[in-house]
TrEMBL record:
It comes from the Bacteria. InterPro entries: Aldolase_TIM, N/Namide_PRibTrfase, NAPRTase_N, Nic_PRibTrfase-Fam, Nic_PRibTrfase_pncB, Nicotinate_pribotase-like_C. Catalyzes the first step in the biosynthesis of NAD from nicotinic acid, the ATP-dependent synthesis of beta-nicotinate D-ribonucleotide from nicotinate and 5-phospho-D-ribose 1-phosphate. This is Nicotinate phosphoribosyltransferase. GO terms for molecular function: nicotinamide phosphoribosyltransferase activity; nicotinate phosphoribosyltransferase activity. Keywords: Glycosyltransferase, Ligase, Phosphoprotein, Pyridine nucleotide biosynthesis, Transferase. It comes from Aquicella siphonis. GO terms for cellular component: cytosol. It is an enzyme of class 6 (ligase). Its EC number is 6.3.4.21. It catalyses: 5-phospho-alpha-D-ribose 1-diphosphate + nicotinate + ATP + H2O = nicotinate beta-D-ribonucleotide + ADP + phosphate + diphosphate. Residues 160-341 form the Nicotinate/nicotinamide phosphoribosyltransferase domain. Residues 9-139 form the Nicotinate phosphoribosyltransferase N-terminal domain. Belongs to the NAPRTase family.
Amino acid sequence: MTALTHSPLLTDFYQLTMAYGYWKLNMHEQEAAFHLLFRKNPFKGNYALSCGLATVVDFLTNWRFCNDDLAYLGTLKNAFQEPLFTPDFLDYLAQLSFTCDVDAVPEGTVVFANEPLIRVQGPILQCQMIETALLNMINFQTLIATKASRVCRAAQGDNVIEFGMRRAQGPDGALSASRAAYIGGCVATSNTLAGKLYDIPVRGTHAHSWVTAFPTEMDAFHAYTDIMPHNTVLLVDTFNTVEGVKNAIKAGKKLRENGADLLGIRLDSGDLADLSIKARKLLDEAGFENTGIMASNSLDEYVISDLKQQNAQITSWGVGTHLATAYDQPALDGVYKLSALRDKKGAWNYKLKLSEQEVKISNPGRHQIRRFFSADRYVMDVIYDLSLGMADTPEVVLLDQSMQDIRLDDYDGFVDLLEPVLRNGQPVLAQKSIHTLRKHAVDAVQQFHNSHGDAPYSVSLEKKLFELKENLIQEIRE
């Protein structure tokens, strides 16, 4: 992230007007608890993959109002052309630093709708002001990591490379997408800056323009193999794909004369299944059995699955637009809700948002997620309140259309998912490498699919929390 994106002004303006209101009413130091969650699993699937936490930690630990931030706020006027914020408030912001506690689900964890990915606890003004930035960072990266996971699963172990920078939503969208796609399971990216910033492997060969810059395709291939003998993947569909494969084989034979080899060819148009089968036959007959066939061109998990069913002879996949933009679902419906407020006596007062839509009624309290296992199988996730706790044999209410009340006793073990990340604004966990996060994500998705496949997964509220919520709803409505 840059100094620009560390600014507290990376927020919706109403966060600042509310912060001013809390300050004017001397509420700004009152302790609050907020939770970030999403309401529906993305891509009509049955899971998501948490991502973006490292970006959040970097943002929060550098969260400061700079002089030019305050100077800008000082220029803002109300409807009567008077300063919107008083000098005393701007002076308060000038000395403000982030002092909240943050607990979160680790990146690369399989997560589900309606359970908190992050809990923020601290002065309400600070909790409020970071809302928009956290949603921006977690929503997008979780969405892209989930998409990448789905694409990689469709590829059935083949390498998937993220190719989406040129069609991503701006430079930061491209960088965030490359990071999330790698955590989600991609093996590399074409985004060189993402490679530098995040230590992601980078891959790339040449474009059609390289071929058309030379008198013939053969001239272009020979020129490229001379310059990049140990990085040769040739794009073969500039003019005629089958002829392009034959020319690539000729270039490959020259490479072998010089002690190198043809690593692969790339198909970027046409009937990818048919062309890959023809290309494989030509390559094998010429003795290039180990030369890979990469495909690109508007790929996603559905196209890849279809090509697999057609017995396409593709060994790696360059996935761009549909991955980096989450083409079929452009946003995750993440929300950030106040759920508890501590009074002057130190007691927590539970809060919720009421709605005519059941899914939009928030959960009160300070939450933790307990994930229950039986051997390696996911059994159930239970959301419970830290103050109310949970029994050894929990009674829970399923958060599905049935709202079934059950006793959970068939499990071997459990883990609480929300881990301490910041205390008093300072990191308390060592940051994991992006390669460790990727391995965790790939393993977690594999474990989940081994036990659940595409079947729905149960998320529930601990019964005491559910009853508390129902009582609060009744009180408010009365």
